[in-house]
């Protein structure tokens, strides 16, 4: 009985439900963005990286919270120094998720990810793993990839 209230006869989620879900996700993202804007991760309110805590090595995501904080404050060079990979890949991720969300909101189905060849996400995964290894090499130029505060 509840299924008829959420889905139409073709099995697609009703547009009203998609709008409500989208509004909820938007509110959560807005709240997270506002929290990050007003609370610097360096002040102890950020997420603690379990990989760095346990091993002392930087993972591919180390510095991402500080980088997002810097981006929100228009400090793009500082964001790049915290996590260069995130700064380079973030616009593409935002564009991808925005396109998928718009397709889902309008059509009830998202078609973009079905059409992406498998080699693209595999290449991104391999690139992230290599980045995670290379940023822990303690000699120049690899030390530039470690999360660094610009003076």
UniProtKB/TrEMBL annotation:
- Where do transmembrane segments lie in this chain? 20-39, 51-72, 84-104, 116-134
Keyword terms, alphabetized = Membrane, Transmembrane, Transmembrane helix
Renumbered to this chain, the signal peptide range is none
User: Which InterPro entries has this protein been placed in?
Assistant: DUF2752
* Name of protein: DUF2752 domain-containing protein
